[in-house]
Inverse folding.
């Protein structure tokens, strides 16, 4: 029985260890959360090993022959054993509880030097407002190593902010503010995923989080400010097409985008003029292409993009689809 | 309690059954003929009422669809229940007319037609319940198959987003409200009165009524598909606000359907409680009750206390939608997270409502097929009660990331993890029951042992989710989908299969096919694990739940899960064929094919119309396998043979 249990435990442990169960941690908080995860995993592997060991052993050892009419041993219980398997699990779950509590409190220590970003979710888009820099964008860009406080709310229904590499998730609720404290430790681009069912476009309500070094972040802030105050242009349009999330729903050959939720821009923008494209971005439900659903495309591009950026995007789209 | 008295003296109440109504009288006699004209009439009446009232008040448009839906879903089902005869006796009694003496024509089933009318026999009602719930199991399973077909590849193939959201909402709603909860009510209905030595449930007419509410609720959930604009409700079975308030009109069918399913559930639970408390046979003390009876006692308490909360939560949404109240409208001072508190105050205990009766079934099956007393009987009963109490203090673990008061997270985490202790006691005691047994691997035993291992996986993943930091990552992902299916399918559904196979001979008087039963188990067991185990992985790696489209990196695994889910669906066909074919022409079942000790096996298969020709005298524990001379109960004729067992319980 012991060997079956140990075998089951080893197999489970191998499955737990060799399969990459979690994405690579990319935030300070993710590291401590993973510690809780591995503590729970070790405890659960031992318990699972015991259960499987006893079950499989009993199934083979105590199996009756079909014609066996005898009864088993009339064992009614064993007080010592019952106390044992009440006390040990109590101790184990208390350990998980206490450790989880410690990690939770530790992860929620606010650093006085943290950066504040205001997050607004709506069907089906994210906007991130940087009050210090006075910029608003559709993607979250952060400098590495600095704690950020996300102060979050929603405009219409409940959404949820999740970055798997950071291990942190928080619903955004209309009418109240919720918050998350995150300290990114790795450079890179990570998906921002909505995990609370929010309507028709729930599956495509995605953005991205980019973590840059301090110099890169400063540069990005500068570019954003310049874009606000003018600039734009066809060159930026292609970048905007990616950063504003257009590519997740629309196909566009020039940008190697293959999204299929909304109409393919290569086709639907044929022969259209700038006024039409601009109206379609700002008020997407005004006219819906045949065979597609209304209410899916976000209506917040007027807020997250500046006038100049929208003009740049329109210019790029017309150029890329051969219209204009 | 009038019924109780009558049933104890069936002869005294034997009157000639009233002659069959003839001619036009047939239209006014309880039954489907009366339904055929009363239901459309009620539909017209409801429509007219709304139209008339709105016209009188000058409210435009007169045909306000949401208001009509509410009127229809209240008035038509009531009319249906009246017409089919659910209230006949009470109406006679209320109006002061002489009540017709109970002639017991509503007892027992002589032909298949008797299953399609108001019947007050708990055994008939039990079968009605089980057959109805399996019909909805098949429908809800097909919805899941459509869902998996869409998810097999990334991108959209077969349905649009709205239809997809409708699929998983209807799937979960039907599985929970029309399958798992009532399937246990059905098995309990058949078995509990027999197990405690009672002639029927305490309130047979209420019992009949609570059954007939069930198809009403099921059809109501499904008729959401008929709504021309938007179709089925698509905000998930949790129906979170504000999404639920802004959904198309189909959502109203969810709110109203929950009322009828909930009412059915509450009535049955009251009936169980009164039956178990007052109608136990002489000598059947609480410490001599089989664990299934204990489990239904605990479950019924949960249902009676918790179910009104889900009813309330859905009424609030309905009021917000139809009467324009502002319970949850944040622009008017409403509080969206408040809904979740009310909802989960029911829906977490509902998890135990869907699990405790299964625990009871497993205890019965294990003791019989391991030929051993249940290990630690008293602690097993007490752990049920511990789960019942703790079950009310853990609801907010569904809301760790929902934006509730942050201070509530740590106490709710502590209680959540603590509830693993009584659950663990049950699992370890079952394992100890297997120890040194003489295990017979009949089909019910396969399901029971399969249940233990699958449920342990579901329980352990629950420990991960109960720890707040891990939940912050895993909540609302496919990890949750994996967890609930290990608990509700590997847990509840496995126990329902164990129970159906175990009591099939008692319910139908025939034996099922053992080879097909085993084939059903193994195909389901393998397909179930291949379908749901990888969901843990894709969830932790970053796939959120309730999405019609996903990151293509998860494409291969989703294809594997989809193919396995089709196999899982196909394995159910084996079960259906086995049940139907065996019921029609299986070998005749003996009274006690499993050599079990509990009372339901001491009467013929199927049992006599009033269960016991003489009232059993309970003298000992129900699980004294291997104890020489021990008896659970004696009937008067054999009292001389009684030997008090040396040791009862432990």
């Amino acid at each position: 029985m012991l060997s079956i249990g140990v075998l089951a435990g080893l197999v489970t442990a191998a499955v737990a260890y060799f399969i990459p169960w979690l994405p690579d941690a990319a935030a300070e908080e993710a590291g401590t959360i993973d510690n809780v995860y591995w503590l729970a995993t070790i405890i659960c592997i031992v318990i699972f090993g015991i259960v499987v060991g006893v079950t499989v052993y009993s199934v083979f050892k105590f199996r009756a022959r079909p014609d066996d009419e005898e009864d088993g041993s009339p064992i009614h219980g064993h007080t010592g054993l019952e106390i044992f398997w009440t006390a040990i699990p109590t101790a184990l779950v208390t350990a998980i509880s206490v450790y989880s509590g410690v990690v939770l409190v530790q992860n929620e220590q606010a650093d006085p030097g943290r950066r504040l970003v205001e997050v607004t979710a709506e069907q089906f888009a994210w906007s991130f407002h940087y009050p210090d820099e006075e910029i608003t964008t559709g993607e979250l860009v952060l400098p590495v190593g600095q704690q950020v406080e996300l102060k979050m709310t929603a405009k219409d229904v409940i959404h949820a902010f999740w970055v798997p590499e950071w291990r942190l998730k928080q619903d955004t609720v209309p009418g109240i503010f919720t918050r998350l404290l995150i300290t990114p430790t790795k450079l890179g681009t990570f998906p921002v995923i909505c995990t609370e069912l929010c309507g028709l476009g729930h599956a495509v309500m995605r953005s991205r989080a980019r973590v840059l070094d301090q110099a890169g972040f400063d540069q990005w802030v500068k570019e954003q400010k310049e874009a606000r105050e003018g600039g734009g242009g066809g060159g930026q349009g292609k970048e905007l097409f990616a950063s504003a999330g257009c590519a997740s729903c629309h196909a566009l050959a020039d940008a190697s985008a293959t999204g299929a939720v909304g109409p393919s821009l290569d086709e639907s923008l044929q022969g259209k003029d700038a006024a039409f494209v601009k109206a379609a971005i700002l008020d997407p439900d005004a006219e819906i292409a045949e065979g597609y659903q209304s209410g899916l495309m976000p209506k917040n591009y007027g807020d997250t993009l500046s006038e100049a950026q929208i003009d740049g995007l329109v210019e790029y789209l017309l150029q890329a689809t051969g219209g204009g | 309690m009038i019924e109780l008295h009558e049933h104890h003296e069936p002869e005294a109440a034997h009157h000639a059954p009233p002659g069959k109504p003839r001619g036009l009288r047939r239209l006014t006699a309880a039954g489907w003929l009366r339904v055929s004209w009363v239901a459309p009439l009620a539909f017209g009446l409801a429509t007219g009422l709304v139209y008339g009232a709105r016209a009188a008040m000058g409210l435009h448009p007169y045909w306000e669809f949401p208001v009509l839906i509410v009127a229809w879903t209240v008035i038509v089902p009531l009319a249906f229940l009246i017409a089919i005869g659910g209230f006949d006796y009470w109406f006679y009694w209320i109006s002061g007319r002489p009540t017709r003496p109970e002639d017991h024509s509503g007892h027992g089933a002589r032909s298949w037609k008797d299953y399609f009318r108001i019947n007050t026999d708990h055994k008939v009602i039990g079968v009605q319940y089980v057959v109805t719930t399996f019909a909805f199991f098949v429908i809800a399973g097909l919805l899941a198959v459509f869902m998996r077909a869409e998810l097999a590849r990334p991108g959209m193939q077969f349905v649009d987003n709205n239809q997809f959201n409708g699929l998983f909402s209807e799937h979960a709603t039907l599985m929970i409200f029309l399958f798992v909860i009532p399937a246990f009510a059905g098995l309990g209905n058949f078995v509990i009165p027999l197990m405690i030595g009672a002639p029927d449930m305490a309130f047979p007419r209420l019992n009949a009524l609570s059954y007939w509410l069930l198809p009403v609720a099921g059809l109501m959930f499904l008729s959401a598909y008929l709504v021309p604009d938007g179709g089925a409700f698509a905000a998930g079975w949790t129906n979170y606000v504000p999404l639920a308030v802004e959904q198309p009109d189909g959502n109203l069918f969810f709110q109203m359907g929950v009322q009828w399913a909930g009412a059915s559930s509450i009535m049955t639970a009251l009936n169980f409680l009164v039956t178990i408390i007052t109608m136990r046979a002489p000598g059947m003390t609480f410490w001599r009750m089989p664990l299934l009876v204990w489990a239904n006692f605990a479950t019924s308490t949960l249902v009676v206390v918790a179910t009104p909360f889900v009813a309330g939560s859905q009424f609030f949404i309905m009021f917000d939608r139809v009467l324009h109240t502002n319970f949850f409208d944040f622009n008017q001072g409403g509080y969206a997270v408040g809904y979740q508190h009310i909802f989960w105050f029911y829906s977490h205990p509902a998890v135990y409502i869907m699990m405790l009766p299964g625990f009871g079934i497993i205890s019965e099956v294990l003791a019989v097929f391991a030929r051993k007393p249940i290990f630690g009987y008293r602690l097993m009963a007490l752990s049920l009660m511990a789960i019942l109490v703790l079950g009310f203090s853990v609801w907010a673990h569904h809301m760790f990331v929902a934006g509730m008061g942050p201070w509530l997270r740590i106490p709710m985490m502590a209680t959540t993890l603590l509830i693993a202790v009584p659950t663990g006691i049950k699992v370890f005691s079952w394992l100890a029951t297997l120890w040194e047994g003489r295990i017979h691997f009949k089909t019910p035993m396969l399901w029971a042992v399969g249940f233990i291992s699958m449920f342990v996986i579901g329980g352990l993943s629950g420990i991960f989710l109960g720890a707040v930091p891990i939940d912050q990552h895993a909540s609302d992902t496919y990890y949750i989908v994996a967890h609930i299916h290990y608990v509700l399918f590997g847990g509840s559904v496995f126990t329902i299969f164990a129970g159906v196979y175990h009591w099939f001979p008692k319910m139908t008087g025939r034996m099922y096919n053992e080879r097909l039963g085993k084939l059903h188990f193994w195909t389901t067991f393998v397909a179930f694990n291949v379908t749901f185990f990888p969901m843990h992985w894709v969830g932790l790696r970053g796939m959120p739940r309730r999405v019609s489209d996903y990151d293509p990196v998860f494409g291969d695994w989703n294809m594997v899960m989809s193919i396995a889910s089709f196999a899982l669906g196909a394995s159910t066909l084996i079960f259906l064929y086995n049940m139907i074919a065996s019921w029609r022409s299986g070998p005749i079942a003996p009274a006690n094919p499993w050599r079990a000790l509990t009372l339901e096996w001491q009467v013929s298969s199927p049992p006599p119309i009033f269960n016991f020709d003489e009232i059993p005298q309970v003298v000992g524990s129900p699980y004294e396998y291997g104890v020489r001379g021990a008896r659970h109960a004696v009937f008067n004729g054999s009292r001389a043979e009684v030997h008090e067992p040396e040791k009862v319980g432990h």
Observations:
- Chain A touches chain B through 87 residues (CB under 8 Å).
- Chain A has three domains: 2-61+79-107, 115-226, 230-321.
- The radius of gyration of chain A is 27 Å.
- Residues 115-226 of chain A form a domain with the Immunoglobulin-like fold (CATH 2.60.40.420).
